[in-house]
Design brief:
The protein has about 190 residues and is mainly alpha-helical. The chain is about 65% helix and about 0% strand. The N and C termini lie far apart (about 45 Å). Keywords: Hydrolase. It comes from Ktedonobacter racemifer DSM 44963.
Length: about 190
């Protein structure tokens, strides 16, 4: 694991550069973290997710290979929050808890996980308590986190390579620019 002292993103270019740094970086799955996050975002795109959720898919594993497994989701959420906002940050921060939620509430879900994902689920806290299940489900973005989680699970195909990479860079820039414009309107 290489620890990067990344600061919260100020620009979409900084976020993209952090994603590009994950080319060739492995968490033990069959694809590198760059391709995994692109595949996750592409799965979301094909399911008709909005641009914010696509960005969450694109950046959800920025902590992998940089910090301890149990901390990778909240760490990535802190990186994206100032630039991309609370929804994207919460969904990224909750994607490991979404796996725990699904393993707790769906008896068949565990068997759909890759061996690496099964192993990390234990490191991320294991099954949820009933209180944790209720708290997770009560969040207004819980369904977004569950959709990201399912696309995360599907985004590990070594036989598939995302080719329309420019689409995702443009989407990242669009969401960041829209958020900055919204912030400036609030300050007028």
């Amino acid at each position: 694991m290489t620890t990067k002292n990344l600061e919260p993103f100020q620009t979409a270019d900084e976020a993209w550069a952090a994603l590009e740094e994950q080319q060739g970086m492995s968490d033990g799955e069959l694809v590198d973290l760059w391709q995994h996050q692109l595949q996750t975002a592409e799965q979301l795109r094909h399911l008709g997710a909005d641009d914010e959720l696509i960005v969450a898919g694109l950046l959800h594993d920025l902590g992998d290979g940089r910090v301890a497994e149990a901390e990778h989701a909240p760490w990535a959420a802190q990186l994206v929050r100032p630039l991309f906002g609370e929804r994207i940050a919460w969904v990224i921060g909750a994607h490991a808890d979404a796996k725990r939620y699904l393993c707790t509430t769906d008896q068949g879900y565990w068997s759909t996980l890759s061996p690496i994902s099964q192993q990390t689920m234990i490191q991320q806290g294991g099954l949820m308590s009933q209180e944790e299940v209720s708290a997770f489900a009560a969040n207004p973005w819980a369904e977004d986190a569950l959709l990201l989680r399912k696309c995360d699970d599907a985004g590990k195909n070594p036989m598939y390579e995302v080719t329309d990479i420019q689409f995702f860079r443009i989407t990242l820039q669009h969401v960041a620019t829209s958020r900055m414009l919204d912030k400036s309107r609030l300050n007028e």
